[in-house]
């Protein structure tokens, strides 16, 4: 007995030792797994930190790119504004095409431009390529008498020759100038009777331009180069993966580069460090949690068993959903006999499982006339190596002999060796859909008839617009006239409140009068086009007057309105009232859609036998997909009831009709959130003769 007790105690002790040994092994295994999890999390942490750093870097590049684009656009616009003055000088030289006339008028003509436009070192005219007339005289120095065509510098000779041959504006530099300083030289050739007459030259003071557009030439984070030669800034910027912006100026292509102050890495170092400190905490926490989770393995095994049971229930539920689906399912063997169907087959076709299992699906379900076609489709699918499924439509027999139109999708069933063991056919009843399509076709034909009726109604609408506009004009004139008599106290003294009320009535009457005029324009253009009375017209005076009329509206919104008119602009033949309406519409639209701080430029120049007028703004722009519709009548970019900007949508429609009636053309260019430029071309019928 004593030996037996001793043996049991020994056995129990061995069992306890074995359990301790097993628990110890599991403990060390859990530690090993925890270390593995920690290493994986650390790798992921490094990757996430890398992604975050890349995102910060991308955002920083985007901000730097936006800043660079603004600087590049400002630089390009600033230079182009000044070069427009060179084009004016070229036009001046064409008019005054002899030395006596140039010498007499040159200084007076240039003085106005030079005094109002900063950043220009000098203007020069070189008849036959020889520098003769220079303004201001203080800039002349050794330039007088200098033969540009035979200049000792090859690059200058090449640029001068290119100017003469092309007739375009050609830029040289920027480089150190003979007369001192750092400048960009712009040249344009002038021709008289098709023969080269003179070179017109402008020297642009580049340090002034850079400062004017906010580019610090002494900054270590910005640089400008052309022809792979850095002309301002730090050349090392181009070796530090900068953001780049190409500036295209006539024959020149400049590349502007920018990096953050201090460099890329230094700009994001603080954020990256903070992110790493914050994100390492979850890594440590997850590692600790993993260790405790692993030590609860038995609980997890119980949980897995429970989840397995739930998955089994979900599988059964999924099977039920398949039976309740709106699609019929058939599984066929290699002989086309049906081996499995779902409940939807009985619902749609009336067959029970006992009725249909084991039968040939073509002979049972497909009408005789369609069987050969369906058989060929199935054979082509089963014989294809790349395409294992087909779609087709077919009439399908129900149990009671009726026909339903079914969309079939057949796909091959293959075993692990790629051998076809059967076919899965899914069918959807599309009978109602086909009936709907037929009804839609009939409806489309009815719509076509209604469309013709609408065209007739459109004609009636035009007549109505014309009649109602004429009918409204008479009472509106009376309302406006009596309101003005009362406002100016021709009918007795008024209080301040009464005068304010009458002022609103007068303003509203004027707005309504403009609307009535616009509607009459629309009605007139639809009846037979706008008939203009063409007379000799001073376009410069007309544009100046309209600009003065709208300048108050621009100033009240904080918008800068500029007017640039070529001094050689000739008289044209046009209808002053109609053309005034066109340019008033264009300027009014530009003011309406430009926010405070924006710019509007109205310019006019002579191009051959055409006058080119443009209205350029920095407003909200127009989406590209809507550009073709803006000249349609009553069209508005934002036509919603809650739109921000008021209007009838007929201003551009009327403007286009008027311009076309003058033998001209109108179009616009626009970029959303950047701005819009409207171009107007008018023919020149009468041109001033130059001296």
From TrEMBL:
CHASE domain sequence ranges: 133-213
Domain Histidine kinase: 467-686
Keyword match Kinase: yes
SMART domains: CHASE, HATPase_c, HisKA, PAS
Stored SUPFAM superfamilies: ATPase domain of HSP90 chaperone/DNA topoisomerase II/histidine kinase (SSF55874), Homodimeric domain of signal transducing histidine kinase (SSF47384), PYP-like sensor domain (PAS domain) (SSF55785)
Alphabetical UniProt keywords: Kinase, Membrane, Phosphoprotein, Transferase, Transmembrane, Transmembrane helix, Two-component regulatory system
A Pfam family recorded for this sequence: HisKA
Domain PAS: 314-385
E.C. number: 2.7.13.3
A GO term, aspect molecular function: phosphorelay sensor kinase activity
Record field: transmembrane: 24-46, 274-294
Family annotation (PANTHER family): HISTIDINE KINASE, TWO-COMPONENT HISTIDINE KINASE
NCBIfam families xrefs: sensory_box
Name the record gives this protein: histidine kinase
């Amino acid at each position: 007995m004593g030996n037996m007790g001793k043996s049991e105690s020994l056995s129990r002790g061995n069992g306890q030792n074995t359990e301790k040994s097993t628990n110890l092994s599991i403990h060390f295994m859990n530690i090993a797994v925890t270390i593995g999890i920690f290493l994986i999390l650390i790798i992921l942490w490094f990757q996430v930190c890398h992604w975050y750093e890349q995102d910060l870097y991308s955002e920083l590049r985007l901000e730097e790119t936006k800043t660079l684009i603004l600087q590049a656009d400002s630089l390009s616009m600033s230079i182009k504004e000044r070069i427009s003055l060179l084009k004016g000088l070229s036009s001046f030289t064409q008019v005054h095409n002899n030395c006596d006339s140039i010498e007499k008028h040159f200084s007076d003509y240039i003085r106005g431009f030079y005094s109002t436009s900063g950043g220009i070192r000098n203007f020069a005219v070189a008849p036959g390529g020889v520098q003769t007339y220079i303004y201001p005289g203080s800039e002349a120095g050794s330039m007088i008498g200098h033969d540009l065509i035979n200049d000792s510098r090859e690059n200058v000779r090449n640029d001068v020759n290119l100017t003469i041959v092309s007739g375009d504006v050609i830029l040289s530099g920027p480089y150190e100038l003979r007369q001192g300083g750092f400048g960009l030289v712009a040249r344009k050739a002038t021709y008289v009777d098709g023969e080269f007459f003179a070179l017109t030259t402008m020297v642009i003071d580049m340090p002034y331009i850079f400062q004017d557009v906010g580019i610090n030439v002494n900054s270590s984070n910005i640089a400008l180069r052309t022809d792979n030669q850095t002309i301002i800034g730090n050349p090392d910027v181009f070796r530090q993966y900068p953001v780049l912006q190409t500036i295209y100026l006539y024959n020149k292509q400049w590349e502007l580069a920018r990096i953050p102050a201090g460099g890329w890495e230094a700009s994001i170092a603080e954020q990256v460090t903070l992110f790493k400190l914050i994100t390492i905490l979850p890594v440590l926490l997850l590692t600790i949690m993993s260790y405790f989770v692993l030590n609860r393995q038995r609980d997890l095994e119980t949980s897995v068993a429970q989840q397995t049971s739930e998955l089994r229930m979900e599988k059964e539920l999924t099977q039920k959903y398949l039976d309740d689906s709106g699609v019929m399912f058939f599984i066929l063997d290699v002989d086309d006999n049906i081996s499995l169907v779902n409940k939807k087959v009985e619902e749609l076709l009336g067959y029970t499982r006992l009725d249909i299992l084991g039968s040939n699906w073509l002979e049972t379900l497909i009408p005789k006339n369609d069987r050969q076609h369906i058989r060929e489709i199935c054979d082509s699918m089963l014989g294809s190596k790349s395409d294992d499924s087909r779609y087709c439509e077919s009439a399908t027999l129900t149990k009671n002999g009726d026909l339903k139109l079914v969309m079939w999708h057949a796909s091959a069933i293959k075993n692990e060796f790629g051998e076809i063991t059967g076919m899965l056919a899914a069918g959807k009843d599309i009978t109602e859909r086909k009936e709907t399509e037929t009804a839609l076709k009939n409806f489309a034909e009815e719509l076509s008839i209604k469309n013709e009726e609408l065209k007739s109604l459109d004609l009636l609408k035009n007549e109505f617009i014309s009649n109602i506009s004429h009918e409204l004009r008479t009472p509106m004139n009376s309302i406006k006239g009596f309101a003005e008599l009362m406002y100016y106290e021709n009918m007795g003294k008024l209080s301040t409140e009464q005068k304010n009320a009458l002022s609103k009535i007068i303003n509203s009457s004027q707005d309504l009068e403009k609307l009535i005029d616009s509607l009459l324009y629309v009605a007139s253009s639809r009846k037979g086009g706008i008939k203009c009375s063409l007379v000799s017209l001073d376009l410069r005076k007309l544009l100046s007057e309209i600009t003065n009329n709208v300048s108050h509206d621009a100033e009240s919104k904080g918008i800068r309105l500029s007017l640039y008119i070529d001094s050689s602009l000739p008289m044209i033949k046009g209808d002053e009232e109609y053309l005034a309406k066109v340019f008033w519409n264009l300027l009014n639209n530009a003011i309406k859609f430009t926010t405070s701080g924006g710019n509007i430029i109205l310019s006019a120049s002579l191009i051959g036998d055409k006058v080119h007028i443009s209205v350029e703004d920095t407003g909200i722009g127009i989406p590209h997909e809507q550009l073709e519709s803006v000249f349609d009548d009553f069209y508005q970019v934002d036509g919603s009831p809650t739109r921000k900007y008021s209007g009838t949508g007929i201003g551009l429609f009327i403007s286009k009709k008027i311009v076309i009636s003058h033998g001209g053309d109108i179009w616009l260019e626009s970029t959303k959130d950047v701005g819009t430029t409207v171009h107007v071309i008018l023919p020149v019928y009468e041109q001033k003769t130059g001296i």
